[in-house]
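Sequence in, structure out.
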Amino acid sequence: MAKTTWIGDVRAGAHDGSEIELKGWVHRSRGSNKIWFIVLRDSTGSVQCVIKRDEVGDAAVVQRMLDGAGPDGVAALVAGFREALDVEH
């Protein structure tokens, strides 16, 4: 499936309050059993995604996705997007 949402558009606020699918390389990830932080990047920039276990369910699913992606691995995340914050990652 073709990529239709670019991180640069997300950072510009084009998708505030929408559910979107982000695809990109996993630049960095860290977290615990309750919350994960994933920095995705594409050719237009990078964005930090926050995943809360109580909102997505099984922690093992997210952990397998991150383990499989590894550094510079590819990931696709579908989530509600609240707002873009102007913060460097």
